Amino acid sequence: MECSAPLQQPGEFVLTTAGLIDFGEISTDIALSIKRQAGKIRLRVGKQVNGEKDNYGEQHINRLSRLRQLEQKGYKNAQDAAESICCCFYEIYDNGVGLILRTPDNMAAYICIEQNGDENDFYDIKTISPANDRFFKRKKRLWKDHRRSDNEQESTPNLQHQPPREFTGNPLEEI
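Predicted structure:
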């Protein structure tokens, strides 16, 4: 029988399976190429209240309908999906205020910068969901990891439980 975790508040951070607060990052080089701020990527406990539009974080991602979608893609929960997405994203898209990280298995994480007025700014994972090519075609791609071939991206299986992503990228070439 598992012990229950202490009650968490919406602003508290979820830790990775390794006990870290940072799931990954938008590196300085990537940030320069997409003209956005660099920062660590974190997942907060968040909230899920039916009927409200400002739901976010682990609670929002772990709601029953989304959890079923995640399980169909091979993920156990929000923490598991966040770890995989933050280490394996190969494209970044613009979503107005925030960014969308895309993985080879067409998972999408919507992240927004949380500014604290100091060097502790971070990208907050608002939601995670499966997506399809049609979804991404309607978004503006800002960055692509050119170290991978297109064939590799299409055939790469779900890459879970990798260490947080820390690499630099080249600016997206015009297509």
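Summary: The two ends are 54 Å apart (CA to CA).
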